[in-house]
Automatic annotation (TrEMBL):
Protein's cellular compartments: Membrane
Main location: membrane
Pfam families: DoxX_2
Protein name: DoxX-like family protein
Membrane topology according to the record: Multi-pass membrane protein
Coiled coil (UniProt feature): none
Species this protein is from: Micromonospora citrea
The organism's place on the tree of life at top rank: Bacteria
Any one Gene Ontology cellular component term annotated for this protein: membrane
Length: 127
């Protein structure tokens, strides 16, 4: 189970890192032109960058606390925060009629719930 939780956290961290870098560094106008990025056309540049920074923090929070053995309880806390972020994303995609992206968001939610459950209940990190 420990290995499965590490793999799930690594996958979710990679997704989060990719999205965070994109939202932080790519101009809003270019994001709005991409498939799935239409929502950025309705948001301010600061909001898009803020979401990108949250995703970068999530990437770090899903892996680094456990790797560095510094506050490893932050891994499942970060997973819960990721669930909230993805539920918000699903609402935005629903409003835009992007149902395929909602399915992707729900896959990320399931992965994050697995991590949170696994690290809170089944296989928490030793204190």
């Amino acid at each position: 189970m420990n290995l499965a939780l590490w793999i799930a956290a690594g996958l979710l961290a990679a997704v989060s890192l990719t999205g965070g870098i994109t939202k932080t560094l790519v101009p809003k106008e270019k994001l709005a032109a991409l498939k799935g990025g239409e929502w950025t056309g309705h948001a301010s540049a600061g909001f898009v960058r803020s979401i990108g920074i949250l995703e970068l923090l999530a990437a770090a929070g899903l892996v680094l606390p456990a790797v560095l053995h510094v506050a490893p309880f932050l891994v499942p806390v970060t997973a819960v925060c990721w669930v909230l972020l993805m539920l918000g994303a699903a609402v935005i995609h629903y409003r835009l009629g992007q149902f395929t992206l909602i399915a992707v968001n729900m896959c990320y939610v399931a992965l994050a719930v697995f991590i949170a459950w696994g690290r809170f209940v089944v296989e928490p990190f030793a204190a």
